[in-house]
């Protein structure tokens, strides 16, 4: 197909061009006409580029400037000062540590919960369907709503800690770094769990029933079936979901902003929040842009891994070329 | 297609599932109960007391504090975002599924990369961009980037649904002499109605629940949206838990209505988040 590169403008309607493109596998079938050209994708691509890709260019520019975000005071070029600061900033190291802790804790809580609830929900009984519909409730709420709900429930004076002191101790959950991180991980789990239940439910239903029948004939019990059939069959879904959780940890930003504002003493400031803090609380948008670019690179790496592992980029329809 | 054919009930899985159900439902119950209780009754009874009264005064207070206006702003942003997505995404998805152009394949790969770049990461340059074009502190300034960031995923969802259209139908319509425009409007759009419903629901949900973009791109209360309003209520009235809970409920009600009427599209849209 490589010679097609220069042929983008060739009229797609002509039968000749299709034959040259090796598209005549469907011998004897009617000619294919009426395929859309590149033009069809232009409006969306332009739009997306302006608001998602152009900002990346701006971020590079801003990272070499001093800019406090005020319209009348435009960015001033300062060379590589912001970048040099990146390597001497103890806040960054702390923030990376917090981010890693949050990501790891999110993965080790959300994957097992997703697998257990999803595999259970894959059963066809009617009452399971009802339970799954109820599982869905947190997904109807914005992260802001979930955060405010739990923030109120965990309020040391008016929430559950005041009513259940034997369980919550002094109730100052957000005042200590590790209990604050635990609260954030729990709220993230609570809000995102329905999504992973759905994903694993779909994946578990896709496991061929014949595998279980064979295992039963061999006398394998339920636990053995789970570990020897279900888990291995879900391996790909687990990989995809892990990547989703890693990228999705950025949405924990909303929880952190509403509940802890990065505290106590930046103990919950994950990288996106640290970036926000530098840019919109300390009004140093230049240094914030440096952190933003670090995040872009991290995201791009995760995305490439995802595309490779899942084969998302194989875009041709299974219907085509039959 | 029963994947579980054992007659024995799954006690371990079942009890775990019920336990998690309680963890989901209990906070929701506590929220509804607190919102329907007067502040005095809530303070004396605590969060776990059984319901003693039924009052809507908390909802009234939320509206008095301007929450109705925030909900309206969120609705405007939602409608605007959905409109932009509806204009841009179906033609793009059609091109990705049917075009033989190399350029389109490159576009598709670009979108996949875009999928993993969350809006959180580019808020600073976005702020600079929106500020430079004079849209800071306006609803339009929030709508434009919100729509941009739902394009990758909605496109992915819609291409999935368009691929289901049988090839023979394309052949039939092209034998009729239809070009891409007629094919798009008479074949592709009607047959991917389900996918289009899904992307409407998904982009609406995203716009309605969006927090960071409106937080950073607006400042005045006139253009504040419901999610940011919740956050600012919490900062000002964190001791008035019944009032806060009523505001949270107000933001959920519209989505709950959508959930009741379009459950299938909503579930499909959210499953699309995970891909398959």
Automatic annotation (TrEMBL), chain A:
Pfam family, one: BPD_transp_1
TM annotation in the entry: 38-64, 96-122, 129-153, 173-191, 238-259, 279-307
Main localization category: membrane
ABC transmembrane type-1 domain residues: 96-306
InterPro entries: ABC_transporter_permease (IPR051393), MetI-like (IPR000515), MetI-like_sf (IPR035906)
Membrane topology, record value: Multi-pass membrane protein
Keywords, in A-Z order: Cell membrane, Membrane, Transmembrane, Transmembrane helix, Transport
Cellular localization per UniProt: Cell membrane
Domain of life the protein comes from: Bacteria
Coiled-coil regions listed: none
Record keyword Secreted present: no
Similarity comment: family membership: Belongs to the binding-protein-dependent transport system permease family.
The protein's name: Sugar ABC transporter permease
Naturally occurring in which organism (per UniProt): Herbiconiux gentiana
Automatic annotation (TrEMBL), chain B:
Record field: transmembrane: 12-32, 70-95, 107-130, 142-162, 183-205, 241-262
Any matching Pfam family: BPD_transp_1
UniProt domain ABC transmembrane type-1: residue ranges: 71-262
UniProt keywords, alphabetically: Cell membrane, Membrane, Transmembrane, Transmembrane helix, Transport
Principal location listed in the UniProt entry: membrane
Top-level taxon of origin: Bacteria
Subcellular location: Cell membrane
CDD domains in alphabetical order: TM_PBP2
Key word Ribonucleoprotein present: no
Topology relative to the membrane: Multi-pass membrane protein
Similarity field: Belongs to the binding-protein-dependent transport system permease family.
Annotated protein name in UniProt: Carbohydrate ABC transporter permease
């Amino acid at each position: 197909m490589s010679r097609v590169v220069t042929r983008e403008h060739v009229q797609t309607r002509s039968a000749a061009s299709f034959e040259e493109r090796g598209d005549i596998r469907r011998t004897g079938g009617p000619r294919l006409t009426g395929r859309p050209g590149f033009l069809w994708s232009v409006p969306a691509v332009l739009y997306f580029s302006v608001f998602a890709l152009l900002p990346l260019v701006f971020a590079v520019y801003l990272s070499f400037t001093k800019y406090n975000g005020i319209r009348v005071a435009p960015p001033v070029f300062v060379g590589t000062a912001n970048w040099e600061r990146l390597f001497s900033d103890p806040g960054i190291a702390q923030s990376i540590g917090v981010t890693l802790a949050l990501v790891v804790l999110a993965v080790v809580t959300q994957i097992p919960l997703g697998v257990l609830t999803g595999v259970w929900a894959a059963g066809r009984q009617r009452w399971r369907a009802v339970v799954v519909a109820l599982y869905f409730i947190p997904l109807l709420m914005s992260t802001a709503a979930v955060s405010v709900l739990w923030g109120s429930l965990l309020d040391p004076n008016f929430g559950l800690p005041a009513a259940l002191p034997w369980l919550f101790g002094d109730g100052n959950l957000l005042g200590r770094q590790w209990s604050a991180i635990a609260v954030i991980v729990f709220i993230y789990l609570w809000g995102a769990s329905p999504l992973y239940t759905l994903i694993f439910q779909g994946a578990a239903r896709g496991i061929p029933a014949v595998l279980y029948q064979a295992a039963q004939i061999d006398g394998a019990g339920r636990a053995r079936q789970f570990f020897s059939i279900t888990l291995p069959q879900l391996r790909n879904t687990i990989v995809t979901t892990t990547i989703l959780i890693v990228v999705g940890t950025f949405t924990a930003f909303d929880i952190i902003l509403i509940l802890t504002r990065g505290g106590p003493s930046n103990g919950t400031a994950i990288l996106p929040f640290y970036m926000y803090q530098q840019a919109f609380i300390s009004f140093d948008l230049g240094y914030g842009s440096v952190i933003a670019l670090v995040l872009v690179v991290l995201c791009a790496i995760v995305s490439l891994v995802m595309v490779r592992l899942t084969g998302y980029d194989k875009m041709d329809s299974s219907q085509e070329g039959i | 297609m029963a994947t579980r054919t054992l007659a024995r009930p799954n006690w371990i899985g079942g009890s775990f599932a019920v336990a998690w159900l309680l963890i989901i439902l209990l906070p929701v119950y506590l929220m509804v109960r607190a919102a329907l209780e007067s502040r005095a009754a809530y303070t004396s009874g605590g969060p776990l007391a059984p319901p003693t009264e039924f009052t809507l005064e908390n909802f009234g207070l939320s509206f008095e504090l301007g929450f109705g206006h925030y909900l309206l702003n969120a609705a405007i942003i939602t409608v605007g975002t959905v409109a932009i997505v509806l204009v841009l995404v179906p033609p793009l998805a059609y091109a990705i599924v049917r075009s033989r152009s190399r350029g389109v394949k490159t576009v598709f790969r670009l979108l996949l990369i875009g999928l993993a770049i969350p809006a959180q990461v580019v808020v600073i340059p976005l702020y600079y961009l929106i500020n430079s074009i004079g849209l800071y502190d306006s609803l339009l300034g929030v709508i434009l980037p919100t729509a941009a960031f739902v394009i990758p995923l909605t496109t992915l969802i819609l291409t999935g649904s368009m691929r289901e259209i049988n090839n023979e139908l394309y052949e039939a319509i092209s034998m009729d002499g239809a070009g891409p425009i007629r094919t798009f409007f008479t074949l592709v759009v009607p047959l991917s109605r389900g996918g289009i419903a899904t992307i409407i629901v998904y982009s609406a949900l995203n716009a309605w629940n969006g927090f960071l973009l409106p937080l950073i791109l607006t400042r005045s209360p006139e253009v504040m949206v419901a999610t940011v309003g919740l956050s600012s209520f919490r900062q000002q009235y964190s001791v008035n838990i019944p009032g806060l809970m009523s505001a949270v409920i107000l933001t959920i009600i519209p989505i709950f209505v959508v959930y009741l009427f379009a459950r299938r599209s909503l579930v499909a849209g959210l499953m699309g988040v995970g891909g398959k």
